[in-house]
Amino acid sequence: MSNLSTIIKERHSVRKYNPTVKIAREEILGMLQEATLAPSSSNLQPWEFIVIDDPEVKKELRLIAMNQEQVETSSAVIAVLGDKEMYHNIDQVYRSSYEAGFMDKANMERLIASSKNAYPNASEEIRKNIASFDAGLISMQLMLIAKDRGYDTVPMGGFDKAKFAERFDVPERYFPIVLIALGKAAAPAFKTTRIPLGEKVRFV
């Protein structure tokens, strides 16, 4: 396995892809499986994915995504959706942990009760903020996993989310957050700089 620091330094947002490179769905599922080890609020995993790898569908998506070339030329586009009703996962999540031997029955019941008291009573805005934050964690993890496997990515927030939801029959419970193009670079990514760390950090 590659050194994590090297992967982080080598990962750049790529917008030029080799359109002849195809990634097997099984491999994409493997990357997503690893990515789902990302943390989430109360482990409720408020995310869903739509993987668009059909060439004709990618052409449609390109129009929804502000005509960004990488949508069509990448091997696949992974849409990360947020789940604003993540409280529906409560029983499944904690019962699964109990059955796996990760907690006792008393803890399971306590966590189920406290989560059912908190999440359904939170405002939709709060729940969407939680889902968006957790989607960011899993998206970054996915991009690093892809780089470790020799692929390139670029996250895209510039797309018509309403049209996306309509075209891909996104249930009301979910909302699109980001599109991640996945494939093999056909040209180097533009290098970028960072604001000096001293301007961004203070110790107290």
From TrEMBL:
One of its GO terms (molecular function) is oxidoreductase activity. It comes from the Bacteria. The keyword Oxidoreductase applies. InterPro entries: Nitroreductase, Nitroreductase-like. Keywords: Oxidoreductase. Residues 8-184 form the Nitroreductase domain. The keyword Oxidoreductase applies. Belongs to the nitroreductase family. This is Nitroreductase.
